[in-house]
Amino acid sequence: MDNAVPCEHVDHASPGEHLCIPMHADGETLGVFHLRTAPAPAEVTERWAQAEAVASRLALPLANLRLRETLRNQSIRDGLTGVFNRYYMEESLAREVRRSIRHGATLSVAVLDLDHFKQVNDAHGHGAGDDALRLFGRFLAMSVREEDIVCRFGGEEFVVLLPEVDTDGAVDLVDRLRMNCGAATLGTSPTGRPPITFSAGVASLPADGMTPEELLKAADRALYQAKSAGRNRVVAVGETALDAEAA
Asked: Are residues 114 and 182 located together in one domain of the fold?
């Protein structure tokens, strides 16, 4: 259209008329409705009016879709760390167990617990504790594979689901996380909070259980063994504390 400001996404070498109409709903711009046509001059005004009507009618459904997506994320995400919550973990673990049994594949579950977390809160305040949890959640989410599922189980405890990973592979992966965790989660807080370390227990299907409950209980027992052996280590079901420390 004449005297209009051209949009950067428009191919100006392409023939015809272009119209870009912002789509608004509830005071928010949701996108741009872009129309390109080559009408006779007499039809231009009518076409633009029709396009504006279409853009206006599309804006509200888009706003509703965005709201639904926001509400869904709030229902399955942990508000502090941004990783998935316990509800989503339980659903996902049940689904992955069924899938692994159906396809004869392995599945590993790692339960991670931050070491001496109460001391962080006591010495540096709950703000520093929240900051540590946020950094740790972000570190986990960025460090695992796309198909892995990171969840906050509660408090300072996290669960990582590792589809198609056996016990040895899971221990190696979680131990790499453990070794890289401190520097990655130190943050820039002026409180002098120490680097984060964690203990972890690993269980795998089918060796350590065939149900979500059995796998979680087995991984939790291995976690308890890791903490009893001095923390800051990864222990798999059936592995002794001495083996874990030597690794």
From this structure: yes
- Would 81 be classed as within a structural domain? no
Q: 217: closest CA among 198, 192, 237?
A: 237
Assess if residue 2 is contained within a domain: no
Nearest to 114 by CA among 56, 172, 195: 195
154 in the same domain as 222: yes
Encode pLDDT of 15-70 as tens digits: 556 667 776 666 666 667 666 666 555 555 666 677 667 666 666 666 565 656 55
State how beta strands 198-205 and 234-236 pair. Answer: parallel
> How many structural domains is the chain composed of?
2
Residues 207 and 140 in one domain: yes
Q: What's at 40, amino acid-wise? A: A
Q: Per-residue pLDDT tens for 142-157?
A: 999 999 999 999 999 9
> In whole angstroms, what is the distance from residue 130 CA to residue 191 CA?
13
State the catalytic residues.
156
Domain that holds residue 53: 17-76
**How far apart (Å, rounded) are the C-alpha atoms in residues 61 and 241?**
57
Residues 70 and 90 in one domain: no
Report how far apart, in Å, the C-alpha atoms of 114 and of each of 4, 8, 38 are.
58, 49, 63
Rounding to the nearest 10 degrees, give the CA dihedral for residues 94, 136, 194, 235: 30
CATH of the domain at 222: 3.30.70.270
